[in-house]
Amino acid sequence: MGTRKIIAALAVSLSLVLAGCLGGDSGGTGPSAYTTELEGTWVYAFSDTSFTYTLTWVFQDSGWTRTDQVGTDQTSTWEGDFELDTSTMPKEIDLYCTSSSDSSAIGMTSLGIYALNSSATACTIAVNDFGDTVRPTDFYYGWVLEKQ
């Protein structure tokens, strides 16, 4: 990955967030009615001799958490609720931010798209900045996340 792509990924990553939900209450038995195809932990990792970057998305019930780790000492985290639209192509995700070290993101929504591979072990996702009213149309500035 070239320096330009790393810088672009970092710039986008500092203002993005992701997750999934379709509501309901499981009543404590069986899987939650909020469970979606994104349920679980998804990771993108990059490193070379001078740089490491890890992006972790966790989707549980109707909530999401995103953690960006740059090197060993720079961590940013966002949290919130999400909604999916699986009837579109590509599928759509709306991430609502409720907690972030970037206070300007709180209360804002990030619009995104995603696609799973056939075995649901990899997810390609692209999201725009919080507050941006335009949804991405392709995955050019996205990530390929691996299911953990």
**Whole-angstrom Rg:** 15 Å
Ends: how far apart?
A: 22 Å
- Helix coverage percent: under 10%
CA-based shape: globular
Count of discrete alpha- or pi-helical segments spanning 4 or more residues: 1
Q: Beta fraction of the residues?
A: 35-45%
Order of helices and strands: HEEEEEEEE
What are the segments in which pLDDT stays under 50 over at least 5 consecutive residues?
1-32
Q: In this structure, how is the largest beta sheet organized?
A: 8 strands, antiparallel, barrel
Structural class: mainly beta
Count of separate structural domains: 1
What's the mean pLDDT score?
82
Q: For the largest beta sheet, what order do the strands appear in spatially?
A: 1-2-3-4-5-6-7-8
Count every beta strand, where a strand is a DSSP E run of 2 or more residues.
8
Walk me through the structure.
The chain is mainly beta and 148 residues long. Residues 1-32 have low confidence and may be disordered. It has one domain. It contains 1 helix and 8 strands.
